[in-house]
Design brief:
Shape: elongated
Helix content: 10-25%
Strand content: 35-45%
Structural class: alpha+beta
Largest sheet: 6 strands, mixed
């Protein structure tokens, strides 16, 4: 996802539009999970030279394969991002919010992938009402009810259940 900036390097306030369609598949590791982008990914925007600093505004449209945190089934998450980054030539003074470039091209691949990773949900859900897996047999409850009795009480809480039963029995 490289942008040729040769035209805008020569003059200040010159704007160059770009439209990149990337047919590669990328793997992202975020929050101890692996995600895969699905081609094609679209990156559109413009680059402007302001006194030697290149400001790039872009929008990303991508699809990412995500695993549901409840039922562990894969589903596709649509990602749409708008972002803005400032680049300075290697060797020039820059602050922490500026990226560094060298040569006549700026490669946006890593920046775009980081933006996608930041947009991914911390706890991905295939649907808001996902039922998850049965805690007894492990069957996906979205596909069919398993019939397992889920009334088992956590062993750490059995003492509280006994107190409740004693209180109800003694009334």
């Amino acid at each position: 996802m490289k942008i040729n900036i040769l035209k805008i390097l020569k003059n200040d306030n010159v704007q160059e539009k770009f439209d990149i369609i990337d047919d590669n598949q990328y793997e992202l590791i975020f929050n101890n999970q692996t995600f895969k982008t699905l081609p094609p990914m679209s990156v559109r925007g413009n680059a402007v030279n302001y006194a030697g600093k290149i400001e790039i505004e872009f929008e990303v449209s991508a699809k990412v394969t995500v695993q549901c945190s409840r039922c562990i089934e894969n589903y596709v998450e649509d990602i749409n991002i708008s972002s803005n980054h400032i680049f300075v030539k290697e060797g020039f003074q820059n602050d922490e919010e500026q990226e560094i470039y060298s040569g006549d091209e700026i490669d946006l691949t890593e920046i775009v992938l980081n933006e996608i990773a930041a947009e991914l949900p911390m706890k991905p859900l295939c649907t808001t009402d996902c039922k998850g897996l049965c805690s007894v047999c492990g069957k996906n409850k979205n596909q069919a009810e398993c019939g397992c009795k889920a009334d088992e009480i956590d062993s750490r809480l059995q003492v509280l259940q006994k107190l409740l039963e004693d209180k109800q029995g003694g009334v």
